[in-house]
């Protein structure tokens, strides 16, 4: 079966973050694969006492200042309004992956300032 990869890529560019997330989950289930990066597997086997090199910042609760949380997510991620709103509306959501400890703490502080609850993973 032939497919037009350019039209698929064009469709993906127009999709929202939540639509892309649903697509990844569907592909994982259909083909019994994982979209997790191989680096994550290597990190899991590392020494438990070793310092962590990168963090994922997860917004677990948006708080009562949702508009400010959306603005903060837009500032942090560079996403458009619709995609940032989608992340805030669908908590828990990973806001940024693979950042340094300092950057993760800065992001956490910005989101907590507007009432969000953040977990660093």
Automatic annotation (TrEMBL):
Residues 55-121 form the Large ribosomal subunit protein bL12 C-terminal domain. GO terms for cellular component: cytosolic large ribosomal subunit. Keywords: Ribonucleoprotein, Ribosomal protein. GO terms for biological process: translation. Residues 5-51 form the Large ribosomal subunit protein bL12 oligomerization domain. The keyword Endoplasmic reticulum does not apply. Pfam families: Ribosomal_L12, Ribosomal_L12_N. The keyword Ribonucleoprotein applies. Signal peptide: none annotated. One of its GO terms (molecular function) is mRNA binding. Forms part of the ribosomal stalk which helps the ribosome interact with GTP-bound translation factors. Is thus essential for accurate translation. Belongs to the bacterial ribosomal protein bL12 family. PANTHER family: 39S RIBOSOMAL PROTEIN L12 (PTHR45987), LARGE RIBOSOMAL SUBUNIT PROTEIN BL12M (PTHR45987:SF4). Homodimer. Part of the ribosomal stalk of the 50S ribosomal subunit. Forms a multimeric L10(L12)X complex, where L10 forms an elongated spine to which 2 to 4 L12 dimers bind in a sequential fashion. Binds GTP-bound translation factors. This is Large ribosomal subunit protein bL12. It comes from Secundilactobacillus collinoides.
